[in-house]
Amino acid sequence: MWILDETTATMTGRDLLIYLSLKHSGNWDEIYKAISEKEEIKDSHEDYAKMVIAAKTKHHIITILDDEMPEALKHCHKPPFVLYCDGDTSLLHAKRKLGLAGARDYHEKEHDKKNVAIAAGNIVNSDGAIVVHGNTRGTVKDTILKARETKEIKDILISPCGLNQVFPAVCKDVAKSASLRISEYPDDTEASVITTTNYKRIVAALADKLMIPNLNFKGEPIINMALNDGKDIYVGPSSGKETAGSELIDEGAFALVTEHSVTWEE
Question: Looking at the predicted structure, is the pLDDT value of residue 32 above 90?
Answer without folding.
Answer: yes
